[in-house]
């Protein structure tokens, strides 16, 4: 059980299957006169053939910017300032617009949330699919029309040939999303990025589209990145999940594992706030406050101000990813061991590893992400780094009890924690 | 921010409720049609097509359905933002469908609405205080000083700060804007509030806060809610009873838990089975619903769901047909229906009249592709030949009419009655509830497993 700074744990045991797409340390920053917004702040993940990586988060967590960064669609004032996006080993960051265009669509395709704005209203659906076919596969004329019709059929649009001649407004919402999927497939991509593809649709249509995407993926062995805010959709479609919060992936795990044993207080809060997950509860669980906008590089846990289980130190130390597969003994007997061997469960939270003292954890996390201890945000509340350290040591003893109970997410622990932080 | 459950409103603001009294809202055969009496076509959009239900005092009735099913129109009609074209809405005993002028203005204080989109439902140039005060101003409520005090009280009630009075809507997050919308709706102390998808534009953690707030307000102020939503888990959590709407009709209505645990209507079943469950280990037994809803201008002749129903009654004379063949026949009808919509315009009609367009031109291709993987018995093939002949003669409507005649059942011809389906007073519209029709046999035949 060690701290895993780069959180590349998930890939180590599956080195034989090279990821299709590997994102490492990606940072995308939007600079305005007023401030710098760190929309994506150092995230890592990879996608392999035939698997679906789910990225889940609330609005403003940076999930769409992540998708756009991969597609090279981040426009000024936004730019990728750090990190790499490797497609089959080739780094896409820093490539010219022309070079990117070869990948975009051809190798990596994307489906957007709103099918109406992604389709051009003055061209027929057929026109638009054929255009993609011409660009990426060099088909034209009746060849392109035939291929377009068979693509529409493959996404279960009946009467496809007739439909090619229709305009987007003549399609229903679900049909439009199907047409977009057909268009994305026209380029025969290896990676398909879906940015909230079903958010604008009804549940019945959503179910149809999710099923279609799963079929398409299976047939073509696509690597898929599925971005959504809907935990239900994630549970349905993803193999592995990354939970995003304020530009960072704060927890990642195979999907069953994430839902069965969420570790991060944010993930827990998010799951508990879904209505219907436990129908008996009279009130819904809520998370205090709102998702912050990251305007500075992370020097603390960004969730700490809202965290019910924040401990002394959360406001000073930026957590690094900790592997938690084998850490919790109670899961070892069930599904934990198996999943752990293939894909890791990591969490970026100062509460982990649970079996270590608080002091050890603070040190470990600090080293893990090589945070400069003199440049801490926490300094503003208590005035000095020296004091910070000594205070931290004091608190270790005083929080001993707090840690023990800290495991069950309960409101009183939260109150304790907040009070203590404020009192001190 | 956190909410206390203690009442923060004066006693005189809470509505006296009498459990033994009449339902607050009683809707009888309500119709709201749009676009009546056009020049070319006399087909109105039947957004709400004859619904009847009641809302008890202090209860929350959930209204669910796909987009375009008429749920928003129904909600707007209940607060008289739309004028119904038929039926009646008795509010506290008064029929509000005929109110006008001063009577209508006076009544409106009692019924308010919270809109779905907190961005577009408030004027960005007004301060929050002004927005919440507007209903008070337009009703000349007490003195300006008292109005301002009332607004502060309302802001506090919905969990906003007094200093928010002078801010503008764009300075707030989506959840806070929805709180402003709620404060505005409550300004005049209504009895009845229509909540039109109040949380569908919000993240789940924010949604949880708004739902909790609405629940607290209901308990404090004795409000009666109609909660319109397409998210069924929200409705299950928040509602006492649920009405499921499809194509302008209420297909099933009853106690929320009953509807969720033992849905009776095929439409409710498909709808529930489509909800993605936030549990990856759950075994999804999904009941697929083909295609998209028909146009409310031209609803099916029999059951509204007949064009998509996975449990449609099949006529006895075709008993030996396989499910795959039935599916293919359904798809063929879908295609013809879709084409008939497209062909319903003057240029196409003229081109057909003068022989420039042949509706059967690619019928053979369609037929081949639709029936590609199924074996078609001779008897069905004959019917398909005849269908083609009808198509050539009378276009798509004639062909559809023929297919309905040959392969249809009561589902295609007769509007289903409301059947009581349990002891709690739940009703469902479906021919399967008729005596002697055991719906479970349809399930066993594996139709749902497709």
TrEMBL record, chain A:
Biased composition (Polar residues): 386-399
GO annotation terms (biological process): peptide transport
Chain intervals for the UniProt region annotation (Disordered): 362-424
Keyword hit for Repressor: no
Membrane topology classification: Peripheral membrane protein
Enzyme Commission no: 7.2.2.11
The entry's keywords: ATP-binding, Cell membrane, Ion transport, Membrane, Nucleotide-binding, Translocase, Transport
Domain ABC transporter: 21-271
Catalyzed reactions per annotation: Ni(2+)(out) + ATP + H2O = Ni(2+)(in) + ADP + phosphate + H(+)
Domain of life: Archaea
Gene Ontology cellular-component annotations: plasma membrane
Compartments in which it is found: Cell membrane
GO MF terms, alphabetically ordered: ABC-type nickel transporter activity; ATP binding; ATP hydrolysis activity
Oligomer status and interactors: The complex is composed of two ATP-binding proteins (NikD and NikE), two transmembrane proteins (NikB and NikC) and a solute-binding protein (NikA).
Protein name (record): Nickel import system ATP-binding protein NikD
Organism placement in taxonomy: Archaea, Methanobacteriati, Methanobacteriota, Stenosarchaea group, Halobacteria
TrEMBL record, chain B:
GO biological process: peptide transport; transmembrane transport
Domain ABC transporter: 25-272
Keywords per UniProt: ATP-binding, Nucleotide-binding, Transport
Keyword Cell inner membrane: no
PROSITE patterns given in the database record: ABC_TRANSPORTER_1, ABC_TRANSPORTER_2
Compositionally biased tracts (Acidic residues): 12-21
UniProt KW Transmembrane helix keyword: no
Residue segments, region Disordered: 1-24, 422-450
Assigned protein family: Belongs to the ABC transporter superfamily.
Protein name (Swiss-Prot/TrEMBL): ABC transporter ATP-binding protein
Lineage: Archaea, Methanobacteriati, Methanobacteriota, Stenosarchaea group, Halobacteria
